[in-house]
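Practice problem: predict the structure.
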Amino acid sequence: MKKSSIYLLISFVAMLAMAACASGAHGGGAGGEVTGISATSWAEPTPYGMVLVSRGSMRVGPAQSDSAWNLRPDSRGVSVDAFWMDETEVTNSKYKQFVFWVRDSIIRERLADPSYGGNEEYKIEEDRDGNPITPRLNWNKPIPWRNANEDEARAIESLYRINPVTGVKELDSEQLNYRYEVYNHTEAAKRKNRLNPARREYNTDKPVPTDVPIISKDTAYIDDNGEIIRETVTRGLTGDYDFVNTYIVNVYPDTTAWINDFDNAYNEPYVRMYFSHGGYNDYPVVGVSWEQANAFANWRTDYLRRSLGREGIYVEPYRLPTEAEWEFAARAGVNENKYPWEGDLPMTEEKGCFYANFKPQEGNYVQDGHLITSRVGTYSPNDFGLYDMAGNVSEWTSTAFTESVSKLTSDLNPEYRYDAAKEDPYKLKRKIVRGGSWKDVAHNIRSDIRMWEYQNEQRSYIGFRCVRSQIGFARGNKLKK
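Answer:
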């Protein structure tokens, strides 16, 4: 090709590029100026049953000493970003929806399994064009609860048992296991865990690391005896999948907590009725461990994503609140509030007991009209519109407990997470609970103090609520022209 032809071609390409910039193609601005690329944004609708807690700052922790309770001042300033929070604790009714979803998913699996029903219509393995896809359950195909044929009845009945004492057919709660996976973004993002060694160390005075990062991930499976086996695998980093943790959790609440939490007390009616009887539908679910609460939050996220039915819609996951988020929300962002309301009113027992469900006097649980838990939303909300942030049931947070947790966390969205391995000492499996419960005295329902419980414990006085980070952006002062 002649030089003149080459120059002509280069000039033509340059003209095309300039024309593209002038027309705004590829995000360019007129006249070759950089004006930025626009991106689609959308307003996030209010999640059902949640209220928005706007970003803010406050001093968390007790600000004054209390010698009677051996409480030392431990307040510090923190800031948290905006998030949605359940306006009430998760109820029996909402948790039953999770339990029944797990039940129905297992039955659908068995209706499709050749060993039981063998009906391929209960599992989708191809797209509309006949191309193979990752198999998923067909939720549009109803379960034949009535008029089931022999094979279908065998699949359904396999999830039930006959009580050997009463002879009544009942759901076999031991089979209600929920499997889910969580990608650990925090560990995957750390420089020390990057696949490219050159990107692990930015200091050019140091050599490029040659060692292979060691990671730990949780995995779980069900053995031949039907037992859930959980293991923590420690190995050299091989890829992104090393940050995917697998969990299998039995989701049914421990209804026997009502007996095991109180020695020599007649609480059998609660064991039989609290979770199963419709009269308690609007009461907070209890007997749920930290592990089960996390499983619920994961299911709730997937349940929402499936209902959207569209690609490209990003949804922040439901999760347990961090300790800082919980306290900021409970105290309505006010430094002076020890409780979800202004002042120290619960210490005045005659009036204070009507602000929350707690035990105002020794042995007197009923001064507020309730013996155990109360319906969620019975008492007035705080200034953020949140109910029962003090009393009723204590609430799980996502934050791991250690005596020095306040010194370990940042002042920006503070969170201390420790995923304890099965082999870890039991004391490393403690998680922070907040808010106090129906069985606690006034001091223990304060919003500025922390308590803890082991992550696998199921108590008749501990429940939870979920949060979701808001998809929103700070609006600062605009530049004046």
